[in-house]
Amino acid sequence: VIGVPMDLKLVMPQQLKVRLVNDWEAVTREHKLVALPRSPTVSQIMHDFCNAKARRSTQERLYSELRAGVCNYFQQALSRALLYRYERKQYEDIASSPDLATLPVEQVYGAEHLLRLLVKLPVFLEATRMEPDQQAVLQVKLQELLKYLQRNHATLFTAPYETPSKAYVEWWEALDKASGAEDPTPGGAAAAGSKVTALRER
Predict the structure, then answer these.
(1) pTM score > 0.85 for this model?
(2) Do you find a cis peptide bond into 160, omega within 30 degrees of 0?
(3) What percentage of the chain has pLDDT greater than the value 90?
């Protein structure tokens, strides 16, 4: 078997950690939703990030692969691991929307859900095998992406959360009464454990 098991350890900037907590509270406690489709989308964010980094380096191919890989993982993980229970109907409504159903999810969702992916990505990748030097490169690139989100948070996380319709609230009340389950901690931070740590602002 080629390579060794993946062991990524990402440092989460404190500003983004606060974003995760605020996002969790807005959706699970205040019962609000991220307004969709978002602008910029996950696809746009990854395109802008990778283009900006590639222009200043000789690693255009690596950034192109990173963009494709993150978008691919986002597609696979969104419905299974990145949504809070309160967002399920919104996801289903998008899947049946004539305007949005044909779009890949990375062209509908934005920074909030991308950040949730990055928190969980080290755990998602644990079963992947990769040479140590390749792992080191990937960790550096993902850390650069987190810093990019932090540096541009004022423009990437600007969309306000919206209060859903009465019909949506009634759907939730019926579901909540039937199940009584609670969402996990912000952005799956507990699932990631020590794989993603907080970095305090200096």
Answers:
(1) yes
(2) no
(3) 67
